[in-house]
């Protein structure tokens, strides 16, 4: 139980990877605030956390709204008395090539993925600094943050931004005992009720570039997050772990 006595916030925790991360942290001993745009679904995951014997709470939040993020932090402190771990998982994706992209499309992806990460990290880091016992921030980026693909300029830029944001925060907060790291999933099939799975063609093309020959599973991503949240990762700071079966390592390789 490496996370016993800890209190975590998982944004985007109602579905997909966030749900798997919330349950893994609870399995490892942490209490969990499940924060999501979909408050009812977040409460259902909080129930799953309670079934694992941990304290849980849920909060309906739009991570791009500073006021709502502040209220989320207050509600977490009220529920658990402290915050030790923040997982910035909430994110939106979508494809749009530059020439036809709507300004609102770009703005929403940046607001949720990048500004949301900033707002949550700032509000939680202030709480962690006030507590004076350090903490862990784990950001969810993507292989798209390091590997370009057509149609993904907004999403890929937001995820590349998260990588650099992670590294700068690691420098700024390291002295406070707060580590800041990122996990970059490759294509991961989540069974999410709110996000359709990629098309068969996309899945086949992606997996064709994965040396391990399979897509990611939510448990693969949650395990890396749990490690970075644990005391075992006490000296890991400012790093990005791509959990992608080797996809990004071999992206441009040619054999034969
Ligand atoms: N699944 C993948 O293949 C994959 C790959 C790389 C990166 N990621 C990243 O992992 C994270 C989770 O992805 P997923 O596949 O589980 O997606 P998902 O859509 O299944 O889950 C995302 C969750 O975030 C919530 N959310 C969306 N906007 C929000 C907002 N403004 N405020 C609060 N909550 C909000 C949704 O309600 C949902 O519960 C995202 O950041 C995504 O970019 C996913």
The gist of it:
Helices cover 43% and strands 15% of the residues. It has helices at 16-27, 39-51, 66-80, 103-131, 153-173, 200-207, 218-229; strands at 7-11, 31-36, 56-60, 85-88, 135-140, 178-185, 240-243. Nicotinamide-adenine-dinucleotide binds at residues 11-12, 14-18, 36-38, 61-64, 89-93, 112, 116, 140, 142, 185, 187-188, 190, 192, 194-195.
Poorly predicted residue ranges: none
What is the C-level CATH assignment? Alpha Beta
Which small-molecule ligands are present, each listed once?
A: nicotinamide-adenine-dinucleotide
| CATH topology type | Rossmann fold
Total count of strands: 7
The main sheet comes to: 7 strands, parallel
Radius of gyration: 17 Å
End-to-end CA span = 47 Å
Overall 3D shape: globular
Strand-residue proportion = 5-15%
Total helical elements:
7
Strand order of the largest sheet: 3-2-1-4-5-6-7
The SS-based structural class is alpha/beta
The average pLDDT score comes to 96
CATH superfamily grouping: NAD(P)-binding Rossmann-like Domain
């Amino acid at each position: 139980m490496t996370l016993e006595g800890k209190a975590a916030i998982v944004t985007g925790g109602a579905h997909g990877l966030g749900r798997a991360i919330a349950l893994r942290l609870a399995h490892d001993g942490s209490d969990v605030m499940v924060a999501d745009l979909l408050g009812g679904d977040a409460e259902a995951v909080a129930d799953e956390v309670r079934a694992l014997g941990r304290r849980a709470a849920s909060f309906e939040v739009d991570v791009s709204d500073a006021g709502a993020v502040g209220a989320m932090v207050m509600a977490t402190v009220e529920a658990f008395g402290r915050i030790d771990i923040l997982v910035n998982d909430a994110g939106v994706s979508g494809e749009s090539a530059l020439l036809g992209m709507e300004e609102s499309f770009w703005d929403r992806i940046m607001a949720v993925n990048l500004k949301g990460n900033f707002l949550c990290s700032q509000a939680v880091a202030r709480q962690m600094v006030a507590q004076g016992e350090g903490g862990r921030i784990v950001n969810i980026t993507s292989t798209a943050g390091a590997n370009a693909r057509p149609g993904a300029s907004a999403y890929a830029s937001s995820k590349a931004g998260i990588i650099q944001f992670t590294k700068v925060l690691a420098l700024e907060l390291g002295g406070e005992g707060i580590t800041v790291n990122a996990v970059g999933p490759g294509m991961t099939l989540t069974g999410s009720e709110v996000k359709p799975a990629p098309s068969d063609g996309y899945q086949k093309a992606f997996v064709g570039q994965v040396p391990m020959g399979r897509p990611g599973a939510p448990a693969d991503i949650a395990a890396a997050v749990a490690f970075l949240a644990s005391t075992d990762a006490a000296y890991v700071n400012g790093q990005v772990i791509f959990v992608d079966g080797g996809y990004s390592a071999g992206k441009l390789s040619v054999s034969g």
